[in-house]
Design a protein that fits this description.
Elements (H helix, E strand, L loop, with lengths): L1 H24 L2 E6 L5 H13 L3 E4 L2 H10 L16 E6 L3 H10 L2 E3 L11 E3 L2 E2 L7 H7 L4 E4 L2 E4 L3 E4 L7 H9 L5 E3 L2 E7 L2 E4 H4 L3 H21 L8 H18 L8 H16 L3 H14 L20 H12 L1
Antiparallel strand pairs: 1-3, 1-11, 2-3, 4-10, 5-9, 6-8, 7-8, 11-12
Length: 330
């Protein structure tokens, strides 16, 4: 009895020593949960990880605790808080975010069974179903799913939360979710937390939506540029825009104060021309034919020659037009 206990104890010590050496040898140490992972898929994943320099080792929860406690790495013992389900340890030199992405990529969806815990919040989305009206309406209602009849089929009125993370799923709910085609389970290695440089990175931190993250960075960049423009803060990205804005502000101010320069002379002449038309009571389109109408009005019919002759109207030169505007505004 004593010899057998001593033999078992030596074996456990050997396992703890082996795990402790792995913890101290690799910069990235993780805790994974292999619960509900079929053996064939586990073997495939182990072979795939090994090919990428990732070591996956399994043992009892209590021995993992011992190895973490005996490690020399500062703070690694905090991984004990994330040992759950059917635990294993993973060791790598890769970035923990890349490791999480790799493990998540190799996971597959699966139906949930009665008695299993919900891994995440389970939502039954609103929309049509394939169910014909019948007793299933009452079954759906018993788990909090509101229904209605639409086009001869049962439809779900609104998104319905049927389970929170960690809830034990009843056989009835599990059966309904399977019939609805909802597969909340993920079969694969779930990285619960990872240790790197004295920090514990949980799955919440590691599970990064890259597209959403890149979008947030773009939004933050645009908001930073807008703020820098608002306070006239010169940077590599804002200097050109600030100079353009200063130029346009200067032109606007010069036009407002009637300052004549190379940029304002044409707009100011246009402004003066419009003012002259306003003073004469003519609209711009009327001014085009005003001179012709005036010429006809001052030519008496009695003094008109027997034979009407068309005289070529002498056009005013630009210099004369400008002189006329000058005399108008004194």
């Amino acid at each position: 009895m004593t010899a057998q206990s001593h033999h078992v104890s030596d074996a456990k010590k050997s396992v703890v020593k082996d795990f402790t050496q792995l913890i101290d040898s690799y910069p990235i140490v993780g805790i994974v949960n292999m619960e509900n992972l079929p053996a064939p898929q586990l073997q495939r994943m182990r072979a795939s990880l090994r090919a990428q320099g990732v070591v996956l080792r399994m043992t009892k929860q209590r021995l993992i605790y011992k190895a973490l406690e005996q490690s020399k790495k500062p703070g690694v013992v905090k991984l004990k808080e994330h040992v759950t389900g059917m635990p294993a340890m993973i060791f790598t030199r890769e970035n923990p975010f890349a490791l999480f992405k790799l493990l998540k990529k190799n996971q597959s969806k699966a139906p949930i069974k009665g008695g299993q815990k919900a891994p995440d919040e389970i939502i039954v989305p609103a929309g049509p179903t394939s169910f014909a009206p019948g007793p299933v309406i009452g079954e759906l209602g018993s788990v909090g799913i509101k229904t209605m009849i639409q086009d001869g089929k049962i439809a779900i009125k609104e998104d319905s939360r049927v389970a929170k993370p960690g809830d034990i799923i009843s056989p009835k709910l599990a059966g309904l979710l399977t019939r609805l085609g909802i597969e909340p389970m993920r079969i694969g290695l779930g990285l619960m937390a990872a240790y790197e440089n004295g920090e514990i990175l949980t799955r919440v931190v590691l599970d990064v939506d890259e597209e959403a993250y890149i979008k947030k960075i773009g939004t933050a960049h645009n908001e930073a540029i807008a703020l820098a423009m608002e306070i006239a803060y010169p940077t590599k990205e804002t200097t050109d825009k600030l100079l353009q804005k200063a130029f346009m502000d200067a032109v606007t101010l010069a036009l407002d104060k009637n300052v004549v320069n190379g940029e304002t002379v044409k707009p100011l002449l246009g402004k003066a021309y419009a003012m002259s038309l306003a003073l004469s009571g003519l609209l711009p389109d009327e001014a085009l034919s005003a001179e012709a109408k005036a010429a006809q009005a001052v030519t008496p019919a009695a003094h008109a020659p027997a034979e009407h002759k068309t005289e070529k109207k002498e056009e005013k030169k630009p210099e004369e037009a400008a002189a006329g505007l000058g005399s108008l505004f004194g």
